[in-house]
Amino acid sequence: MVDPKHPQKPDTKIITGGRRKALTGAVVNPPVWRASTHLYDDVAALDAGDKTNEDGRFFYGRRGAPTQWSLAEALTELEPDAHGTMLYPSGVAAIAGALLSVLQPGDVLLMSDNAYDPSRSFAQGFLKRWGVETRFFDPLIGAGISELFCDRTRAILMESPGSLTFEVSDIPAICAAAKGHKGAREIVTLLDNTWATPYFFTALDKGVDMAILAATKYVVGHSDVMAGAVTTTKRHWQALRATAQTLGQVLSPDDAYLAARGLRTMAVRLKAHEASALDIAHWLTTRPEVADVLHPALPSCPGHEFWKRDFAGSSGLFSFVIKGDWNKAASFVDALELFGIGYSWGGFESLAVPKRPEKYRSATQWTCDGTVIRLQIGLEDVGDLKADLEHGFAVFAA
Ligand SMILES: *Cc1c(COP(=O)(O)O)cnc(C)c1O
User: What CATH number does domain 10-263 carry, 3.90.550.10, 3.40.1390.10, 3.40.640.10, 1.10.10.10?
Assistant: First the structure.
């Protein structure tokens, strides 16, 4: 039995979560439960089936089966104060599903200016057509966000750190301001927590109402599955669930299986990503070719004090500014052999991509002395990775 005075540590919860025998059976990993149709004992059971809209009861494939329920339960257990988790076929679907569950035409959405580009596009395209206005805010705004509130403000989407430029927001202050607002409707706070995961940042106990994960990244961890998740409190659960079901969102059982398998090693992987990324980030600060290193654990990072106060660690994704234009930066990236050139991150392999953050800003301006290169530090030997970067710098200098 779990002693309430000794709550399980996150490393243990990652192993035990969602593995109730009553749910998944007597095997370590829940089987891949492939089904559209579930059979009922009789017509009375069929008739009763759709009335209890809960996990743990078979209804139809779109509402999942033990493979998905187990993963959802495991993610819920990683967030103290959480009531449930909805799964989605991608991180972007999770962001859209969460926003659509709280917004309606006429509402105003506040979005952090460092948010992931597809989050911005969803707001500026779909939500705009749907009658929702989005206003962007400085990620370092903190409690000052209350000055942006109006009668129509309904939700705040944060991303901390921003997954391109890595500013860390004062999440507790922003959430407290939202809770303190006395408008006609409450303001719901949503956080894209993909960078930290609940292992390094538990969101709901800091005041966040909905914690969003692109599970594609660290949960899956092997660059082979797209998946998303939203974990929320009891208050917002029914709306989140109803919206996902109305939109027909379902994560396939095969992908749920792989995501759950990835999750079991997430703690050890994150610690390895963290150590190598910190090593390389510190090393980059000593390089003459580098103008700046954007890593939340470095004191020079905007919002570093909030990272230090609120986070249990740092993951493997950060950026640096190379002293050169786009073409010079491209020559550096092209020269790398261990670092792949590609989107996404959170897998076991290292990646490098040059980026143009100034294209995705409206409330703030992005300027730097060179070109931003984003690195995902994988699980390779850190000396080998440095040697590869060193080779890139030699080509860059030539
Ligand atoms: C990748 C990513 C997403 C989207 O996830 P997909 O599974 O690729 O749709 C959302 N937010 C952040 C911060 C990401 O890096």
Answer: 3.40.640.10
Check 34, 47, 62, 235 and give the catalytic one. 62
Whether this prediction's pTM lies above 0.90 is answered by: yes
- Please, how many CA atoms are within 13 Å of residue 153, restricted to the half-sphere of its CB? 22
Strands 210-214 and 290-294, bridge-based pairing: unpaired
Domain positions in the chain: 10-263, 266-397
Q: Is the pLDDT of residue 291 over 60?
A: yes
Confidence of residue 54 (pLDDT cuts 50, 70, 90): confident
Q: Does domain 266-397 have CATH number 3.90.1150.10?
A: yes
Number of the ligand 1 atom closest to the C-alpha atom of 92: 9
Residue 40 Cα to ligand 1 middle (Å): 38
Secondary structure letter of residue 78 according to DSSP: T
The residue among 83, 74, 87 whose CA lies nearest residue 264 is: 74
Active site residue 192: yes
What confidence tens digit (pLDDT) does each residue in 30-48 have? Answer: 999 999 998 999 999 888 8
Amino acid, res. 236: H
Q: From ligand 1's centre to the CA of 216, what distance in Å?
A: 7
Task: Evaluate whether 323 touches 291 at the Cβ level (below 8 Å).
Answer: yes
Question: In which residue are the tokens 């005075």 written?
Answer: 5
Q: Is the pLDDT reported for residue 5 higher than 80? A: no
